[in-house]
């Protein structure tokens, strides 16, 4: 029997951990139902041959997600990682999704907010979906991060409920109460998902590769 720990949010976390770049991620969490860690990775940048790591990422999904991905059964992870249709189907599957992002390198929340804003806005503009409502919704998310300071080991979570076009973003850092914001614009929510889960255009190639491998092996069972 695994011990259970409760985080600040209404999320139960098992104490069985998976290490992602020396940062522990629970192998399972429970929001409204149990979600499993299907993929993980990091965001980083290379400057003059020096790798700078920013965040570690864990992607939690309902195990039933494989029922929505059956047409890719039998394909190896390295093939799935290159198939954006596969990740589109994953994003659109009417199941709960949860992203846990842990800070490795300290940055200002405003820097993270600008990265998110730019990625989401560019995707919306490319799909001709960037209207006044989207701009306002995105602005609120950027403002939410503006006043935060991302100390090492701070945690950002994105909760995408099943059959919902909303998202809840939470931020936790040592010594402060958890802060939350709800995003209710469906187009903005979709592009936040695509920022992290968008296949070859996702923000973290290591996460996409790990997710592809995790789902590939699950599909083969």
Distance between the termini: 24 Å
CATH architecture of the domain at 17-63 and 93-197: 3-Layer(bba) Sandwich
Mean pLDDT: 92
CATH class of the domain at 17-63 and 93-197: Alpha Beta
E-strand count: 13
Helix content: 25-40%
Report the radius of gyration as a whole number of Å. 17 Å
Shape: globular
Domain Chalcone isomerase: 20-216
GO molecular function: intramolecular lyase activity
Organism: Hibiscus syriacus (Rose of Sharon)
Family: Belongs to the chalcone isomerase family.
Spell out the key features of this protein.
221 residues, alpha+beta, Chalcone isomerase, two-stranded antiparallel sheet, 6 helices, 33% helix, globular, disordered N terminus, isomerase, Chalcone_isomerase_sf, Chalcone-flavonone isomerase family protein, CHI3-like
Produce the secondary structure layout.
Blueprint: E1 4-6, E2 12-14, E3 17-20, E4 23-26, E5 28-30, E6 34-47, E7 50-61, H1 77-80, H2 84-92, E8 97-103, E9 107-108, H3 109-126, H4 132-146, E10 149-150, E11 155-160, E12 167-172, E13 179-183, H5 186-197, H6 205-219
Helix pairs in contact: 2-5, 3-4, 3-5
Description:
By secondary structure, the chain is an alpha+beta fold. It contains six helices and 13 strands. About 35% of the residues lie in helices and about 30% in strands. Strands 1-2-5-6-7-8-11-12-13 form a nine-stranded antiparallel β-sheet. The protein has a two-stranded antiparallel ribbon with strand order 3-4.
């Amino acid at each position: 029997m695994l011990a259970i720990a409760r985080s600040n949010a209404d999320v139960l976390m098992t104490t069985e951990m998976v290490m992602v770049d020396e940062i522990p991620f629970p192998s399972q969490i429970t929001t409204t139902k149990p979600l499993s860690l299907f993929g993980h990775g990091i965001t980083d940048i290379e400057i003059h041959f020096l790798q700078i790591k920013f965040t570690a990422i864990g992607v939690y999904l309902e195990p039933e997600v494989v029922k929505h991905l059956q047409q890719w059964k039998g394909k190896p992870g390295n093939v799935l990682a290159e198939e954006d249709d596969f990740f589109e189907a994953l994003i659109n599957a009417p199941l709960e999704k949860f992203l846990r992002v842990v800070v490795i390198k300290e940055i200002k929340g405003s820097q993270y907010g600008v990265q998110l804003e730019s990625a989401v806005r560019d995707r919306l503009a490319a799909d001709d979906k960037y209207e006044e409502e989207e701009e306002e919704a995105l602005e609120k998310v950027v403002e939410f991060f503006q006043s935060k300071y991302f100390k090492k080991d701070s945690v950002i979570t994105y909760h995408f409920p099943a059959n919902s076009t909303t998202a809840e973003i939470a931020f936790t850092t040592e010594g402060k109460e958890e802060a939350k914001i709800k995003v209710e614009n469906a187009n903005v929510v979709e592009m936040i998902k695509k920022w992290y889960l968008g296949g070859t255009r996702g923000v973290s190639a290591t996460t996409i590769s790990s997710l592809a491998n995790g789902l590939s092996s699950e599909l083969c069972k």
